[in-house]
């Protein structure tokens, strides 16, 4: 049995019942095999054996009192996955599906993703099974404060810097920042990213993941003589990543025709009204049915797969495994040419195989959605320098970082003889950055 197969078997045996974690590790290990014939020293120094094992996984009780005076108990996590190239860095997710498996898969992906950004950021991730849906502002604040009461001793601007993810945006980051300040006595400039600009947040951070996804996909389309201009684009999700992806697609002359949530999807054949979408989701925090009520000609479909809608480009921007085999088959049948992953691991392994077999451009999440963490890295720099950059300065830097990622992943794919396999390209390029840093630091 090959080294990578044997390692995968060991990972599965020692972390049973963690399907998302196994899935993420399997995909990476399957593509890294060609490295080890060129660089056997990585095997001798057990770089990959060490890389799949998180440096630390913290799990903690989060007790809080809800609006009815009832005590609630949730579970919190922080995985400090890999610090070879910088402080642990990655988002916090609040969603009922959060488990050790989900946090470990996200932390592992984050380690390689952060390697691709070219910034000095290690990999981390955290979250809770807390469900923010239907909670009042006061309840969300009570939860965030309790979460930080448990976590504050493990994080810091030079050790571990959390940010947002599903269910965590500027409001939650603000509550966490406030409680951290109260507990430590410091105004924590760079302990969290994704803050409001009023206390050190970077302009352009809310837009960064969605914009970065579209910049990267546009670059890849350009390499095949195409662009977003005039293209019909199916987007899933209706949160931070999805909405700013839709905005940038529109700015580049494309036509975003769908957004979705866990209840259904909106189909707006003429192109989504981005201002209306932002008003409904960001300001009024309503469900997508409100869009249909407000926009004549748009349709709402309860349930169903958004991937059934014919399109040229698909941007999955909701959650892991949201694009199953049936969705991939529908996209291919309807002539879709490119898939860019805004979410982390949204396509199942079967779907990735279908895209690759049918010659679609396929940009995996760890490359395609790296714009968010990149601008988080720029927020950390601004905080350390006591500066606040303009939106244009941040956006220009983001475009440069996304171009750098495209260059790295396409070069790695070419070097290893599979020029169109950007999964392989991203995994190898991200691995090499972290692996060489680990080699330089000895066995730690
Ligand atoms: P948000 O919380 O802002 O939005 C999440 C969206 O996805 C909502 O519309 C939500 O619908 C939908 N969704 C969540 N879970 C499910 C589910 N199980 N089934 C169907 N729909 C679901 O999160 P973000 O936009 O920040 O994150 C979206 C994805 O992008 C995640 O995979 C995240 O890890 C990834 N990402 C985020 C970055 C960031 O900077 N925020 C950076 C890089 C990646 P509903 O309201 O019904 O739950
Ligand atoms: O998955 C991700 O890259 C994020 N949720 C963003 C992490 C960050 O630290 O900005």
Protein described:
The protein is of the alpha/beta class and 444 residues long. It has 17 helices and 12 strands. It has helices at 3-14, 19-38, 41-44, 47-51, 100-117, 137-151, 170-184, 205-222, 240-251, 274-283, 289-294, 325-333, 349-357, 365-368, 371-385, 391-415, 422-440, and strands at 56-65, 71-82, 88-94, 123-128, 160-163, 232-236, 255-260, 264-267, 299-302, 313-316, 338-340, 361-363. The protein has a 7-stranded mixed β-sheet, sandwiched between helices. Helix 9 links the parallel strand 6 and strand 7 (255-260). Helix 6 (137-151) packs across helix 7 (170-184). The longest helix has 25 residues, at 391-415. It is globular and about 65 Å long.
Estimate the strand proportion: 15-25%
Strand order, main sheet: write it out. 9-8-7-6-10-11-12
Estimate the global geometry from the Cα principal axes. Answer: globular
Largest sheet: 7 strands, mixed
Portion of residues in helices?
40-55%
**Rg (C-alpha, Å):** 21 Å
- Give the integer mean of the pLDDT values: 97
**Uncertain stretches:** none
The number of helical segments is: 17
Distance N terminus to C terminus? 27 Å
- Tell me the series of helices and strands, N- to C-terminal: HHHHEEEHEHEHHEHEEHHEEHEHEHHHH
What is the total tally of β strands? 12
The set of bound ligands, ions and cofactors reads:
NADPH dihydro-nicotinamide-adenine-dinucleotide phosphate, (2Z)-2-iminopentanedioic acid
Structural class: alpha/beta
Topology, please?
Blueprint: H1 3-14, H2 19-38, H3 41-44, H4 47-51, E1 56-65, E2 71-82, E3 88-94, H5 100-117, E4 123-128, H6 137-151, E5 160-163, H7 170-184, H8 205-222, E6 232-236, H9 240-251, E7 255-260, E8 264-267, H10 274-283, H11 289-294, E9 299-302, E10 313-316, H12 325-333, E11 338-340, H13 349-357, E12 361-363, H14 365-368, H15 371-385, H16 391-415, H17 422-440
Parallel strand pairs: 3-4, 3-5, 6-7, 6-10, 10-11, 11-12
Antiparallel strand pairs: 1-2, 2-4, 7-8, 8-9
Helix pairs in contact: 1-2, 2-5, 2-17, 5-17, 6-7, 8-9, 8-15, 8-16, 12-13, 15-16, 16-17
This protein binds NADPH dihydro-nicotinamide-adenine-dinucleotide phosphate and (2Z)-2-iminopentanedioic acid (2IT).
């Amino acid at each position: 049995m090959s080294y990578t197969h044997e390692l995968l078997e060991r990972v599965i045996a020692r972390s049973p019942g963690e399907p998302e974690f196994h899935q993420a590790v399997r995909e990476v290990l399957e593509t890294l095999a060609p490295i080890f014939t060129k660089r056997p020293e990585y095997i001798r120094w057990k770089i990959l054996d060490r890389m799949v094992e998180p440096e630390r996984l913290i799990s903690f009780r989060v007790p809080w009192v809800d609006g009815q005076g009832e005590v609630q108990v949730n579970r919190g996590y922080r995985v400090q996955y890999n610090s070879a190239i910088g402080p642990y860095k990655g988002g916090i997710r609040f969603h009922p599906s959060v488990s050790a498996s989900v946090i470990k898969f996200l932390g592992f992906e984050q380690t390689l993703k952060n390697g691709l950004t070219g910034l000095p950021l290690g990999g981390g991730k955290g979250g809770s099974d807390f469900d923010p849906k239907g909670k009042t502002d006061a309840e969300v604040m009570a939860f965030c404060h309790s979460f930080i009461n448990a976590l504050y001793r493990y994080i810091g601007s030079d050790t571990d810097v959390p940010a947002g993810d599903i269910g965590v945006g500027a409001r939650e980051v603000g509550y966490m920042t406030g409680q951290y300040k109260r507990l430590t006595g410091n105004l924590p400039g760079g302990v969290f990213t994704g803050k409001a600009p009023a206390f050190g947040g970077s302009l352009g951070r809310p837009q960064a993941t969605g914009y970065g996804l579209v910049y990267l996909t546009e670059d890849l389309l350009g390499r095949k003589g195409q662009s977003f201009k005039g293209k019909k684009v199916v987007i899933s999700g209706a949160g931070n990543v999805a909405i700013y992806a839709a905005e940038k697609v529109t700015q580049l002359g494309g036509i975003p025709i769908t957004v979705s949530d866990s209840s259904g999807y909106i189909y707006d054949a003429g192109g989504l009204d981005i201002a209306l979408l932002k008003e409904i989701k960001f300001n009024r925090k309503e469900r997508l049915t409100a869009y249909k009520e407000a926009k004549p000609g748009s349709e709402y479909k309860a349930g169903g797969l958004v991937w059934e809608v014919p399109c040229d480009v698909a941007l999955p921007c909701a959650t892991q495994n949201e694009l199953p085999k049936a969705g991939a088959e529908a996209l291919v049948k309807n002539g879709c040419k490119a898939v860019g992953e805004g979410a982390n691991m949204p396509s199942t392994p079967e779907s990735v195989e279908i895209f690759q077999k049918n010659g679609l451009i396929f940009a995996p999440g760890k490359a395609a959605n790296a714009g968010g963490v990149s601008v988080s890295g720029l927020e950390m720099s601004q905080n350390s320098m006591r500066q606040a950059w303009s939106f244009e300065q941040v956006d220009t830097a983001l475009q440069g970082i996304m171009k750098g990622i495209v260059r790295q992943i396409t070069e790695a794919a070419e070097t290893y003889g599979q020029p169109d396999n950007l999964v392989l390209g991203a995994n190898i390029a991200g691995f090499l950055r972290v692996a060489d840093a680990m080699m330089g630091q000895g066995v730690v």
